[in-house]
């Protein structure tokens, strides 16, 4: 209609004239929309699309996109790496635009200070690559998948193979630039410690637009050791996993052994379960073997199972499923990949070891699926030394390990999404007696809209949002809502699971 096209025109006019704007009638709109979006379950043709996508090059362009959206009644979805499990950076049920930070990817390393400024649109792979280019004994402790963006990842916590030694990615942030709801750019000093606390674990999207992080680099030896030992059920995998729960969180902090449960398909179509014990050790094979002999002899690790490599090669080993020493590290720079799938994830945190017969119940359910995983990351070490309230990420000393459940499928149609999602919900229900409760906590970065969502047109009440808010943030939820009330009282930065404003 003429009214809507005049609204469109004034919106376009409002945006900085030089800004790259992709509207649905421009050719690159669809490819831009999908290429940096990870979970294709949430981007089906039915999913609501943005009015426009902007890819700012300058802070003033981000500011124009923010202020014009406010003026013209659009919400914004900020996208850094596009890996949100529920697609919250790409779709929304209210009229919205996407601010895609794909051009905000500068990484500036200060070797004297052992810090780096990294812009929010950079990927983990780009950060790791840039650090390795400057030093073979420095690193950054963040997630395993190289295409994850630092904007979403670090603001939700972020962990990978060095969490037991160095904590979360967000524990290693020393400063940040954030654009607030009025378009003002703040750093740690000008935003104040409350807001700086909130964006390290509480998710950036409720508070503003993170422009960049200042991260503290950490030290690694020139050579680290990796290994993967896989066992199927008939090879005693369940017993080993039971044992793993008692030792993994207590091991030397230089040693990270995660357990990865998956379905394996035999030649005749028969299914089995394989559990892989997948490890990074910040030291040599020679140091590792005696350590394993005393702390986890049941795994039977011998030197032939181990590979020594530089830390940067270990990011390939984990990020690309067993890449070897010879692979070029340039693959860390690929922002997109072709093997995207439909998936749904959930998470749990475990306080007490789970018994073998409970695991056997899980395996039975797994055998009903085709592609499903349970990834168990041990806590302890540095994670136990940081108090629950130090940053807004609360899941610390109380937990032995974290579980991520994932189900994937390759084709849509015939109710497949419904079938797989229902399967995962059933598994989650089965686990309820064996994991944390009151509240049953979850990890924001493995976002799960089943935990509750805000579908209100106006402001959702604090009490309603608490349903998922306390799962992600436990006792920190209240402080997060108070910070939100201070910095965005009108709740412009609102999404399906954002933090509601609370006034003191
Ligand atoms: P995306 O751009 O989708 O953003 C996620 C959320 O943060 C959205 O709500 C978005 O609006 C908001 N946001 C993004 N940029 C922002 C900014 N600049 N300012 C304010 N808000 C912003 N996690 C982990 O801890 N360890 C791991 O090893 C992995 N591995 C992994 C593998 C794969 C294949 C996937 C899909 C995901 C993971 N994750 C993970 C989870 C990952 O940490 C989580 O999805 C992050 O939120 C992704 O951040 P992106 O910037 O990529 O996502």
From TrEMBL:
<dbReference type="InterPro" id="IPR016169">
    <property type="entry name" value="FAD-bd_PCMH_sub2"/>
</dbReference>
<keyword id="KW-0325">Glycoprotein</keyword>
<dbReference type="GO" id="GO:0071949">
    <property type="term" value="F:FAD binding"/>
</dbReference>
<dbReference type="InterPro" id="IPR036318">
    <property type="entry name" value="FAD-bd_PCMH-like_sf"/>
</dbReference>
<comment type="similarity">
    <text>Belongs to the oxygen-dependent FAD-linked oxidoreductase family.</text>
</comment>
<dbReference type="InterPro" id="IPR016167">
    <property type="entry name" value="FAD-bd_PCMH_sub1"/>
</dbReference>
<dbReference type="Pfam" id="PF08031">
    <property type="entry name" value="BBE"/>
</dbReference>
<dbReference type="Pfam" id="PF01565">
    <property type="entry name" value="FAD_binding_4"/>
</dbReference>
<dbReference type="GO" id="GO:0016491">
    <property type="term" value="F:oxidoreductase activity"/>
</dbReference>
<dbReference type="InterPro" id="IPR006094">
    <property type="entry name" value="Oxid_FAD_bind_N"/>
</dbReference>
<keyword id="KW-0732">Signal</keyword>
<protein>
    <recommendedName>
        <fullName>FAD-binding PCMH-type domain-containing protein</fullName>
    </recommendedName>
</protein>
<keyword id="KW-0285">Flavoprotein</keyword>
<feature type="domain" description="FAD-binding PCMH-type">
    <location>
        <begin position="46"/>
        <end position="220"/>
    </location>
</feature>
<dbReference type="InterPro" id="IPR012951">
    <property type="entry name" value="BBE"/>
</dbReference>
<dbReference type="InterPro" id="IPR016166">
    <property type="entry name" value="FAD-bd_PCMH"/>
</dbReference>
<keyword id="KW-0274">FAD</keyword>
């Amino acid at each position: 209609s003429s009214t809507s096209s005049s609204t469109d025109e004034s919106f376009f006019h409002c945006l900085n004239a030089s800004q790259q704007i992709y509207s649905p009638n421009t050719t690159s709109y669809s490819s831009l929309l999908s290429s940096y979006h990870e979970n294709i379950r949430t981007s089906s043709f039915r999913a609501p699309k943005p009015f426009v996508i902007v890819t700012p090059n300058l802070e003033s362009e981000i500011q124009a996109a923010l202020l014009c959206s406010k003026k013209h009644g659009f919400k914004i979805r900020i996208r850094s790496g596009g890996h949100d499990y529920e697609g919250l950076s790409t779709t929304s049920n209210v009229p919205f635009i996407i601010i895609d930070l794909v051009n905000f990817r500068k990484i500036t390393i200060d070797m004297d200070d052992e810090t780096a400024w990294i812009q929010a649109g950079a990927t983990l792979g780009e950060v790791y690559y840039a650090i390795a280019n400057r030093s073979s004994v420095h690193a950054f402790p963040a997630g395993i998948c190289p295409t994850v963006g630092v904007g979403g990842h670090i603001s939700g916590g972020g962990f990978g193979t060095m969490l037991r030694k160095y904590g979360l990615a967000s524990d290693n942030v020393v400063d940040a630039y954030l654009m607030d709801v009025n378009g003002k750019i703040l750093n740690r000093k000008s935003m104040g410690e409350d807001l700086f606390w909130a964006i390290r674990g509480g998710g950036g999207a409720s508070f503003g637009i993170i422009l960049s992080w200042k991260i503290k680099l950490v030290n690694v030896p020139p050579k680290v050791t990796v290994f993967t030992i896989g066992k199927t059920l008939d090879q005693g995998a369940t017993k080993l996993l039971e044992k793993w729960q008692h030792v993994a969180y207590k091991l030397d902090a230089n040693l990270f052994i995660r357990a990865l449960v998956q379905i394996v398909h035999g030649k005749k179509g028969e299914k089995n379960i394989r559990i892989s014990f997948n490890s990074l050790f910040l030291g040599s094979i020679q140091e590792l073997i005696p350590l394993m002999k005393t702390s986890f002899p049941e795994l039977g690790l011998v030197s032939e199972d181990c590979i020594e490599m530089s830390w940067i090669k270990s990011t390939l080993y984990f990020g690309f499923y067993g890449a070897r020493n010879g692979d070029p590290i340039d693959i860390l720079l690929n922002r997109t990949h072709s093997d995207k799938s439909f998936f749904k994830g959930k998470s749990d945190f475990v306080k007490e070891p789970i018994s073998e017969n409970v695991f056997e119940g899980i395996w039975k359910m797994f055998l009903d699926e085709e592609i499903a995983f349970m990834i168990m990351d041990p806590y302890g070490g540095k994670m136990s030394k940081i108090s629950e309230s130090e940053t807004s990420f609360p899941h610390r000393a109380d937990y032995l390990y974290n579980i991520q459940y994932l189900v994937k499928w390759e084709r849509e149609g015939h109710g497949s999404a419904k079938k797989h999602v229902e399967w995962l919900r059933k598994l989650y229900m089965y686990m309820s007696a064996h994991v944390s409760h009151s509240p049953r906590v979850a990890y924001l970065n493995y976002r799960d809209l089943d935990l509750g969502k805000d579908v209100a047109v106006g402001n959702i009440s604090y009490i309603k949002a608490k349903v998922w808010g306390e799962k992600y943030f436990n006792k920190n939820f209240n402080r997060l809502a108070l910070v939100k009330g201070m910095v965005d009282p009108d709740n412009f930065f609102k999404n399906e699971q954002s933090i509601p404003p609370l006034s003191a």
